Amino acid sequence: MNSYARDGAPRTSTIDDPPSVEGSAAGPSALSLRPPENQVEKRAIGWWMLQSLVLAVPILAAAIVAYVWWDAARPWLILVVLAAALLLIVGVAVEPFWRYRVHRWETTQDAVYARSGWLVREWRAAPLARVQTVDALRGPLEQLLGLSTLRVTTASSYGAIDIGGLDQRTAARLAEELTEATQQIPGDGT
User: Fold this and answer.
1) I need a labelling partner for 120 at 20 to 30 A (CA). Which of 25, 65, 91, 102 fits?
2) Which residues contact 189 (CB under 8 A, 6 or more apart)?
3) pLDDT for res 72
């Protein structure tokens, strides 16, 4: 199985690398937690912006309506309006771009690697021997932008690894390839 990059060239991380942590006690082929090489699609920035708009605009609109119609509460409702406006600005102008810098993914013959988050970063490495299911998911906003989320469910108490912001074809191809690769590994993924 190959590591995928859109332009075929290796990518270097611009975000702080995590400390080296052994991911398995399987002996000499133990996986170490390392930054994945591939960025998500640039269209993911728009997806994250739309998610922020869907959340923050109704809150801001409700706060403004309450401010206009509820005279007695105006002194403290202005704080709610300002907080909702700040949430909207951060959600549209800061968060999507920061997430784009952080989010990375990679698949190899041995594992699936993912890094996500923006305030709190999560690094995950799942050995293929632990993979139970692989799914490509597409929510309404993702469908609108031609994106998909690859969900790799493992025999882990931390749950599935989600790699959001992938092109739909890339996610479908990875799901197929990971499914084929995990079928070649003896055992039941636990």
Assistant:
1) 25
2) 129, 130, 131, 132, 154, 155, 182
3) 87
Backbone CA torsion sign across 111, 153, 164, 60: negative
Q: Is the whole model's pTM more than 0.90, yes or no?
A: no
As a dihedral over the C-alpha atoms of residue 157, residue 160, residue 161, residue 166, rounded to 10 degrees, the angle is -170
For residue 62, what are its two tokens? 């409700």
Is residue 120 within 8 Å of 106, Cβ to Cβ? no
DSSP secondary structure string for all residues of 131-149: EEEEEEE--HHHHHHTEEE
| Token pair of 140 as six digits | 């309404």
User: What is the rounded end-to-end Cα distance, in angstroms, of the chain?
Assistant: 21
What's the DSSP call for residue 37?
S
